[in-house]
Each structure stands twice: as structure tokens, then as C-alpha cells.
Amino acid sequence: QVQLVESGGGLVQPGGSLRVSCAASGFIFSSYSMSWVRQAPGKGLEWVSTINSGSSTYYADSVKGRFTISKDNAKNTLYLQMNSLKPEDTALYYCARDWVARHTYDYWGQGTQVTVSS
Fold first, then answer.
1. How many CB atoms lie within 10 A of CB 83?
2. Using an 8 Å Cβ cutoff, are 118 and 11 in contact?
3. Are the CB atoms for 106 and 1 separated by under 8 Å?
4. Hey, is 87 helix, strand or coil?
5. What is the arithmetic mean of pLDDT over 90-108?
6. pLDDT tens for each residue of 54-95
């Protein structure tokens, strides 16, 4: 069965960096587009970034130039490197497998908490 397991969240000071990971299993990882989606406290889901099967990458304007999505197909792992973090980046970060339509997903991980605070 499909499983997505995030890790690497934590508490970081403003301006700091953090890398979160998502270990995937149960499907051919290299064949799918994968995304990061976040949910800040009291707010709705916000798309952050996508990497497609050809490794083309896409970013929300709010993170462009600060975050980098990548993947290691040999390790079936998705990454999100986050630099110059801001308090407004505080959220639960989910990895998700892309479905058919843009910004739709058929499988989600459990999420990893990222808190940016001094």
C-alpha cells in the first residue's frame, strides 16, 4: 500500500534553515509528481511546491527563492530545503502524491511540524 512518511520538522529561529523529508513506499516513486502542502494554525491548506517525474519544479510565490524541492528516486525520498525561514512559514508540512488535476492529491503523509520562532 502507498505510504508517505514525513520527518525533519522542528523549531528554528527566523532566518534559519531546515530540511524536511518524505519517505515513499508502495508505488513507483519516480513515475509520479510529488508535492509539499502546508497548513498554518487556524488556516486552510496551502500548496508550497511540486516536482514532476522529469524533475521540473514549481513553487508558490510565497516561498520562491527560499525553498528548494528535490527528490532521490534511488531512495524513494522527497525533500524540501527551507532557507531564510519566516514566522509565517510555521505550519504542518505534508507531502502528497499528485493526482490527475492540478493541485489535487490522492495520498498524503501524516505531516511534520515546522515552527519558526525566536
1. 14
2. no
3. no
4. helix
5. 93
6. 999 999 999 999 999 999 999 999 999 999 999 999 999 999
Residue 112 and residue 55: Cα distance in Å, rounded?
23
96, 4 contact by CB (below 8 A): yes
* pLDDT band, residue 9 (cuts 50/70/90): very high
User: Could you give the C-alpha distances from 45 to 39, 41, 80, 103, 108, in angstroms and in order?
Assistant: 5, 10, 17, 11, 12
Tell me the pairing of strands 34-39 and 91-98: antiparallel
Backbone phi and psi for residue 30, each to the nearest 5 degrees, phi listed first? -65, -15
Indicate the residue type of 37.
Answer: V
Task: For residue 110, give the C-alpha cell.
Answer: 501524516
Q: Return d(Cα 10, Cα 7) in angstroms, integer.
A: 9
Q: Locate the DSSP E strands across the chain.
A: 3-7, 10-12, 18-25, 34-39, 45-51, 57-59, 67-72, 77-82, 91-98, 105-108, 112-116
Question: According to the model, what pLDDT value does residue 62 have?
Answer: 97
